[in-house]
Every structure is written in C-alpha cells, then in structure tokens.
Specification:
The chain has 469 residues and is an alpha+beta fold. Helices cover 56% and strands 17% of the residues. The protein has twelve helices and twelve strands. It has a five-stranded antiparallel beta sheet. A five-stranded mixed beta sheet has the order 7-9-10-12-11, with helices on one face. Helix 7 packs antiparallel against helix 8. The radius of gyration is 52 Å and the shape is rod-shaped. The protein binds adenosine-5'-diphosphate (ADP).
Length: 469
C-alpha cells in the first residue's frame, strides 16, 4: 500500500475517532438537555399535584386542577381504586391501559434500548415507546376517605425524540462525508507532499554504477525530504569519488606494473637471443631482470598494503614500543644504507608509544628513504625524537631538493610524484610511500606536519601519542 494512502488512512482514522468522540458528546449533551427539560416538567407537576391532593379533598383538588392546569404539556389522569377514571385533563390522549400494557411488555422483553433510555431516569419515571409516539409516564398514589387514588402523569416527548433522531442521523452522515473528504484530501495532499520521495526512488532506479554523476533534483521544501535528497546526493558524490579513486588506482597500478613487465620482457628477449653466446650480455640481462623484479615486488607489496587498508583488512598488532631504542636502531640502519649522506641523531629522548612496531618502522622508513632519495650525495639527514610529556615528537629533516608549496598538498595522494627530472639521477619512486605513511599515521592517531622549501630541504614532524597504559 503506498505510504500516501497509509498516511491518509491513519489521519482519517484519527479524525473519525475525534469526530465520534466530539459528536457523541454533543449529541449526548443535547439529548440530556432536551429530555431533562421534559423530565423536570413532568416530575415537578407530579410532585406538586401529589402535595395538593394530600392537602385537599379529591373534589376540590380536581376543581383546582381543572382551573389552573399543571405545567403545559403534562397530561393528568386520576383513577380510583376500581381503576375508574375520575378525572382526565386530555381525554383523547393515549389510554392508561395502553400505557400499562406497554410497560408490562417492556419488563417482559427487557430490550437494551429500553434499558438505556430508562437507566438515566428517576425510578418512578418511565420512557414508553409507541413506535412513532414517545412519552414520559409517572404516577403517584394518594389515599383519601378510605379510597386509594392514582394520579397518572403523561408527557409527550415525540418532538424531542424526533429532533434527536434527526440530529443523530445528520451528524452521522455529516461525519461520514467529513471522513470521506479527509481520506481523499489526505491522500492527495500526502501524495503531493511525498512526491519528492517518489522522484528520489525513480532517480535511484535510473542510476547505474557507470553513471554516478547523476544527481537528484532537490526541491526547496525545507523539510526531511529535502534533507534526504541532499544526503542522497552527498552519498552519490562520495560513491562517485570512491569509485573514481578505485578506477584511478587500478589504472595507475596497471600502468606502474607495465613498465617493469616491459623491461623484463625486453631483457629476457635479449637474453634468449644473445645471452647464450655472450656471458657479458647474459650477466647484464639477469641483473636488469632481477632489479626490475625487485621493483615489481616492492610495488606489489605497496599495492597490497593499500588494498588491504582500503578494505579495512590491514591488521595492527599494537604494543608498547621503546622509542629511544627504535629511533637509535633506525638511525643506525639509515647510516648504513646511505653512506654518502651524513645521518645524525643528536636528540633521542626516552618514551614509550603504543603502536604496531612493524608499521611504525615502515612509516619512519618511508620518510627516511625519501630523505635519502631526494637529498643529493653529501647532504645531511637529521633524526630527532623529543618527549614533550604528551607525545613523542619525531623530526626527520634533510637539506635536499625540497618540495614546492603547490606540490606539498598533493604528495600524500596515491601515485603522485613530483617531476622526476628533479630527483637524484632522475629516478623517482612509485608515489605510494607517503600514502602508506599517511594511512599508518591515521591508524595510530599520529599527526604529520610537513615543512619544506625548494633547494633548502624538507622536515617531517610526527606527533605520536605516548603510551598511557
Ligand atoms: P615516491 O615513491 O615517489 O617517493 P612518495 O609518496 O614517498 O613517493 O613521495 C611522493 C613525492 O613527494 C615524491 O615523488 C617526491 O617528489 C616528494 N617527496 C617526498 N619526500 C620528499 C623529500 N624528503 N624531499 C623532497 N621531495 C620529497
């Protein structure tokens, strides 16, 4: 069932309930007021007449009643102990026998309608239904001169009853029409209000993975639907970005792998043709193939690392790490790897961090390898580690070729490399190192700052939270 119809139905049910409660209350109120007036007039007349009958003898009482009749609309009839009518204010009015008969029937049949009508009335007042004619009936007994007289009081309430029946019917049909109108209007209105929702659904059905640049038209409704459309567009934007990044990653990775693969093919061809007869060529080919295979292996490892990181499958085994030992170790290694540079480690303070040792080592290696790569021979590389009480501040500074301000924003992007012609021997890396370092830093809450000036050098400042455990 469409949500617009559901909403319309819910509102109509609520409206119907409100209508039923308010209209019933109104009807009961009117009912009470009208019947109460009739009830009072007959009861007062009966009480007054009973009092007068007790005070006087029957003849003068009848005389009084004849002269000044009771409250208009109330019929009085007096019978003696032999059920003979000795006075009747309106002789053509319904006979006492019929009234008594009807009362007996009521008692025998015990119909719910009769019960409801009589339950609100005082004990001695009865509501009698003659199909198209309704009356209130009460009686009083007076004892006079060894005679028992019965005073019968009757009051027509046909007009009141008819009015109430008419009113009830009118209210019922008016309510029904109201509910119907509310269902139709509610349906049309909610359909109009929910139109943006069906637009969103239609659009979403149309969007294909190859066509993520489509957007939902946002109606300025300033409500949840506008928010939904905006959120959806933002999600599409993120998806598109992610998808494009993925596509770019695959295409860059293939591109990067093609070069070593082509080189390996070329050299293996050469080896097959001339290598057998010429040991020097064979040697040259094998060295080149080996070097390219190593390059390829490194590249594949980096790609795998990033792929695992993207899929959130990169597992970290965090533990407490003695930074002093780690930095000393890494500085020693760097000196060994780069004998043509001056590697120093003047400040190496004591401190522990909670991290994955392999990852931290890998991250520091990436920065140091870059310093080695992008610092001409004879250059200086300075490693320092300072404990400021909250974090270990590790600095890796070189006086190498530096990075342009414009380029600084981009070097953490995957496969991004600054013009390789500027680098030592024109050889650059894969452009993946800093992306990996950035991921590791993020996974350990490490802040990376980069300070660099072309031809002056680069400093990487890492703020690593201390182990609080
Ligand atoms: P690569 O494998 O190319 O070194 P990275 O992601 O590690 O990839 O670095 C991206 C780019 O940032 C490099 O191509 C290089 O131009 C620049 N870069 C990184 N570190 C330094 C540095 N210490 N000095 C100068 N340039 C650097």
């Amino acid at each position: 069932m469409p949500i617009s119809l559901k909403l319309a139905l819910i509102y109509s049910i609520m409206l119907s309930m409100i209508l039923v409660i308010t209209l019933s209350a109104t009807l009961i109120g009117i009912h009470y007021v009208l019947y109460r007036e009739a009830e009072i007039s007959i009861t007062l007349s009966a009480d007054y007449a009973e009092k007068k009958a007790n005070e006087k003898d029957m003849q003068s009482f009848i005389h009084d009643v004849e002269k000044s009749s009771l409250i208009p609309g109330v019929v009085i009839r007096i019978t003696d102990s032999g059920n003979n009518i000795i006075y009747d204010s309106v002789p053509r009015y319904i006979s006492i026998e019929k009234v008594q008969h009807s009362l007996e029937l009521q008692q025998q049949n015990r119909r719910v309608g009769d019960y409801i009508r009589n339950v609100l009335l005082p004990d001695n007042l009865k509501f009698i239904d003659f199909k198209h004619f309704w009356i209130f009936y009460t009686q009083r007994t007076v004892e006079k001169d060894d005679n028992v007289y019965t005073l019968h009081f009757l009051r027509t309430i046909t007009a009141e009853k008819a009015f109430l029946t008419e009113l009830g019917e009118t209210i019922f049909y008016a309510g029904l029409v109201g509910v119907l109108i509310s269902i139709i209007c509610g349906f049309l209105l909610s359909r109009k209000l929910l139109k943006p929702l069906s637009d969103i659904t239609r659009k979403v059905k149309e969007i294909e993975i190859q066509d993520l640049n489509q957007r939902i038209k946002v109606q300025p409704t300033h409500d949840e639907l506008e928010e939904l459309a905006n959120t959806f567009n933002l999600m599409l934007e993120r998806l598109q970005k992610g998808f494009e990044q993925q596509r770019q990653f695959v295409s860059d990775a293939s591109h990067e792998l093609r070069t070593p693969a082509t080189v390996i093919c070329g050299y293996s061809d050469m080896l097959a043709r001339w290598g057998k007869d010429d040991p020097q060529t064979a040697d040259e080919c094998i060295t080149a193939i080996h070097s390219e295979a190593i390059n390829m292996q490194r590249l594949i490892e980096k790609l795998l690392f990033l792929a695992r990181a993207d899929q959130k499958r990169q597992v970290l085994h965090k533990e407490s790490i003695d930074m002093q030992m780690l930095i000393a170790d890494i500085a020693k290694d760097t000196q060994l790897i780069a004998p043509q540079h001056t590697v120093s480690c003047s400040v190496n303070e004591d401190g522990y961090i909670f991290a994955d040792p392999l990852c931290i080592r890998q991250m520091l290696r990436i920065f140091l390898d870059n310093s080695i790569k992008y610092t001409p021979d004879g250059g200086k590389i300075e490693i320092s580690s300072h404990n400021d009480g909250k974090q270990m501040v590790v600095k890796i500074a070189d006086n190498g070729i530096g990075i342009d301000k414009e380029e600084q924003k981009k070097i953490f992007e995957r496969f991004y490399r600054v013009d390789t012609a500027r680098t030592k021997n024109g050889v650059g890396g894969t452009g993946l190192g800093l992306s990996i370092a950035e991921w590791i830093a993020k996974a350990h809450d490490i802040k990376i700052q980069l300070e660099s000036e072309p031809d002056k050098g680069t400093t990487i400042i890492l703020s690593i939270p201390l182990d609080r455990g």
